[in-house]
Amino acid sequence: MTNISILPKDDxxxxxxxxxxxxxxxxxxxxxxxxxxxxxxxxxxxLAAARRLAENQPNSHIALLEAHEVGEGASGxxxxxxxxxxxxxxxxxxxxxxxxxxxxxxRAAIDYLQLNITKQKIxxxxxxxxxxxxxxxxxxxxxILQPYAQELDALGETYRWVNREQLLKExxxxxxxxALYTPGGYLMNPAALTRGLADSLPPNVTxxxxxxxxxxxxxxxxxxxxxxGNISAHTAILAVNGFASQFGFLSESLMVLAAYASLTRPLTxxxxxxxxxxxxxxxxxVNSISGVTMRLTQDNRILMRQCFRYAPNFxxxxxxxxxxxxxxxxxxxxxxxxxxxxxxxxxxxxFVCMSRNHAPGFGRLGPNVFGAVCQNAVGVTKxxxxxxxxxxxxxxxxxxxxxxxxxxxxxxxLPPRPFLDLGVRARFAIEMWRGRNxx
Length: 439
What we know:
The protein has 11 helices and 19 strands. It is of the alpha+beta class. It is globular and about 65 Å long.
């Protein structure tokens, strides 16, 4: 038996969900239950796994457990990008082949989400707006964007260059030197999307919220203990991202980071007119650590995401959230001086799971246990496709994309702590220095 020593904690700060109406919460598990399949974690991976299992096995009973409420975990706290292309790729044929696999997997995830959003009439501001990949400095443009454009040419992908003057017209700021715009990505409110997927699950899936797993036992299948009940299943799919180590899997291979984001109050009509540009855009930075991810949402809020911290125990000081808000406000003023009275209304953190070699924790993790964890900060698409394919594997379904996912490898072993802690913090400091011109 493995006891879970660290449980998820909901700090009730997620801006994406705080701007949504309330929803009916599923009941917690409060009995002894036997099912065919159990999925732990109701983020993008767990929701895709549950839906796919129900499609593959319509006569099976499937349970989906969520420690808190759907939309309040990492999946509902990200920046709301469904990205179809790798940000930056290398020039070797091996890297190009890996990028093609990434694209196939990401676009399959987007297609699956699109199908279910349309079929279930999920309201989540889902829109194909593409994204800008932007550099603040001419150095960032020369060292990152120009090689990226060459690789997109090699991949046969569509893009266009956007200079400073065009960016001012399109997104309302001339802070950036240039950007590459690619049209294939989608934007959404991630909390609304996860809620909608959870509230439209097939009838043979039972969702239990406020049901953290306290222990797992691998005897005659899978046995889980929760605060008020127990559940037994033949097969489990683990979709808890960085918490996989708490269940005894990949315990020396996963790094957990806290990422901070803020949403402004809605812009007034005069402010929106002053900003100008297109509606509903998204921008990612060439340096993900020092740079700022930004979005203009459909309800005329601006999202700012920057500030990463190492969080091996899934905890950070509360004061850090206030510090992040002040940083976001400062970065906002630099980019949008035309909006001096706009303030950050919501600031929150979400936990990102990374591996040393950017490989996912996918596939068979142990007897009767399959994994769909470690999305390496591309949770909407990687989480969705890993959950879907883990379900296919668990059912013995043939899917050509499984080999694409397996080709991404497995997470490499990390140095032991405290050497890991020192190394991660040093790497952050180096990246902040290297990318100081991209802030």
